[in-house]
Design goal:
By secondary structure, the protein is an alpha/beta fold. Helix content is 38%, strand content 19%. The strands form five sheets. Strands 17-16-18-19-15-20-21-22 form an eight-stranded mixed β-sheet, with helices on both faces. It has a six-stranded mixed β-sheet with strand order 1-4-5-6-7-8. Strands 9-10-12-11 form a four-stranded antiparallel β-sheet, covered by helices on one side. Helix 1 crosses helix 2, helix 1 packs antiparallel against helix 6 and helix 15 runs parallel beside helix 20.
Amino acid sequence: MKYYSASSMRSFSVNPILFRIKYLNHEVIDSTHSPVLVLGNAFHHAMETYYGGNDEIIISSESEAIQKGLEIGLAFIEAYPDGMIGWNTSYQGKQQVMEKFTFAFNSYVKEMPYVTETIVSLEQEMEEKIKVEWKGQEIMLPVPLKGYTDKIEEVDGNLIIVDYKTCSSFSDPDKIDAYKMLQAAVYYFLTYAKYGREPYSMKYQEVKVSKNRDGSPQVKEYEIIFAENDLFFDFFFRFYDDITRAINGEMVWIPNIAAMYDNEIAIIAYINRLDLPEHVAAQMKSEQVTNITDLLKTKIANASSMKKLLKTVEKNFISGKTLNYKDMEIEERIRTKMAEHGMLLRYVDTVSGSAVEVYRFDPSIGIKMSKIKTFAADIEQVTGATNVRILAPIPGTTYVGVEVPRGDARTFVGEAPKATGIVSPVGVDMFGQTQFIDITEAPHVLIAGTTGGGKSVALRSILNSIEGNADFWLCDPKGVELHDIKSERYAEEPEDIRTVLEDLTTEMDKRYVILKQTGARSWTGRPIVCVIDEFGDFILSNPKGTVTPNYYNWSKDQLKAEVKKRFPDMANGLDGFKIPNGELADLLTSESQKSETKYQELSGEDLVVKLAQKARAAGIHMIIATQRPSADVITGRIKANFPTRIALRTASEVDSRIILDQAGAEKLTGKGDALVLRSDSADLVRVQGFSV
């Protein structure tokens, strides 16, 4: 037998066969380790670093101690082989272990004072031959002792042993804990032999890994004053002696100190040697009882709980400790804040865009992306930024991205380049690449965002880039956004806009007739792009169907112009022949009445939806824009038929979800900062829109 330790003595009591295999035969049986053990080991590694005991990490402040301790503990858990952990219903993956560890570590550093000047040793392995003076006698133990002390301090000239443990519940002070008694005695003799003087006390610091519902402290501290607890040593000496005798072949009785129900009674009986007749007789006489049952009751009454053996250390404060984030780089702030919540991220790189910088991280195994997204406000707190957006994951990658607005360092892009056909540039992405949307493939575009987001500029930018490559039919309720853009049709009033849409629907029908006659599947002629700038105003005004103008009161020039617009194939003949005004009026009236009969029952939304559903093959495409992204404007039918969407900054997450079916637009910074959703992808692309 090389040595005794508190854990080996407990093993002998609980399972003598495994004790023999491990400590006498020195054989190793591989088995999985419990997640609780992994968590506890991580906590000890973290505490060693926290108190400055890690030789590879120099600690210069308490804030840095917290940060580095947290990182070391999380890294230990991440590196632990999954196959060596016996997962159970309470711990089903590493992320749960990380979160419990993080909570326990944060609880400890917040509630306990940070004192390093008094530390004598940290995480020290000691194996000593015990030959010391104890109560006036020289004590020499035949088998050395071994143990790992978490921390030894010297306070007012006294050595104090500190042992911290993570736990799901605090120890019950009403129950005698034989293992604590063994451990305290072993550490007492090891420290005594190592430093040549008696330690004064041992403190147990228990840290709960789950939050107390009553808001009470998460750390409970007990202290054993060695000089006041002879009972510990009475138990230790007998236990040590009996194990040694048993190993040497004697038949001895040793209680199971981990028995579930009656271990306390067994320990009290064992300490008082009630298994030995000669001791029982003397004690019966002393206690004036006549049977062993009454004697046992007396002994239990005299030493019934650890309350008489342990002094509970009351803490009168919970410190308001914080990490010193101001001295960290942004990526380190993000990584440390996420580590506070048990989320281990490895920094990869930073991508600088016009409006934001994206910090990219590689997440640890087991982290749920949906959970990472919930910590945007925490990152805003440590970075001092607003409108932080988390991409978990970044589309098309395995990374997690944190978009942090650049503030005063923001840059803008200039004029949009000229489009090829009607493949329009919509902005520059995070990597400086111009992003395009093919309006023929879109096939219809929705642009929405609150005032100041850059909606009107984005719309004009698209039109400027494709000008000359398509005919524009412009609907401009405000009368100030689109009036200077060259167009085939232009309308401002809701009734006039409706007329434009009715005429566009008629034009669509005509083109379908031509397609049918020629056998073509799609229009190859010049496309039409119809724009409704403030779609919300038009929809909510609910204009009535077309009212046929009184063409009989029109002048010759007015009639000719209207016929040329309605019937381009007749344009060349109008000037060469004298056609009476009445015939022109009859023609126009008849055509208008046909349109009125066909479309007057449709609402404004119905007309837009009808066009959106059928107009693509006829070479007609729609762009609608609104600064009122509410459900009564952007209805389900509109969203279904406008799959390509450009979201500028919105006032709320609800508005963002109405536009994009997901959050994000509420985090944009305005002035052209946009999220683009294409019809062929569910991934959002963030761009800075062009200035003009």
